[in-house]
Amino acid sequence: MINLKYVQELIEKEISPDYEIREYFDTKDIVIVFWKHKIYDMDDERGHIIGSGPVVYDKATKEYRVLGSREWFDEDICQLFETDETKEKIKDHEYLMDLFENNEENPSHSHLLTEKIKKNILRRNYINTDDVDCLSILTGVRRMDKEVDNRFDLIRKPEWNSTDHCVVVSDDQVAKEKLINIWKEINFEYKILSETELLLFRTRD
Predict the structure, then answer these.
(1) Phi, psi of 110 (to 5 degrees)
(2) Other Cβ atoms within 10 Å of 170 Cβ, number
(3) CA distances (Å), 25 to each of 14, 28, 31, 32, 77, in order?
(4) Hey, where are the domains in the chain?
(5) How confident is the model at residue 79 (pLDDT cuts 50, 70, 90)?
(6) CA distance 201 to 17
């Protein structure tokens, strides 16, 4: 039987005291234990760590160890993530990439995806980098042709903390206005820095 108390101690020692057991899966040969941040939601990038995977208990050797971030992406473990939610995320990603590359838009899909992103932002009260990226594509601020022509960029400015802010660079005033309207709808601040630079706040009081 797996010792969850020991697993929690291992997580705090090997990963960080800020993390705790989220759930575990008992397979034929191993028990896989996934962890999460104690404060931030699962989809909040502030709670993500690069380099550490789940804790694995080997039933044969009775050993516990933390897998590396690449080490745990084998077929058996990945199957645990094949849910309706993950399949929907894959479809949304494919739609966004098609929109980004080919400008082929389905207005209904774009609207539903925009509302979904806004809902997640309001739940966690934080805007991930990926949210900015996706909304930039959905509003037309970011498209492949604009990147080729150097008409779009996401940059950092030393005077603005990148965890709490990002700067969108674009010469498309119409698309930027759409992006601004989304920030107004979710009640997050923004600031027009110049004719091409738009500062977006990722947190709010």
Answers:
(1) -60, -40
(2) 21
(3) 20, 10, 6, 5, 9
(4) 4-81, 84-201
(5) low
(6) 29
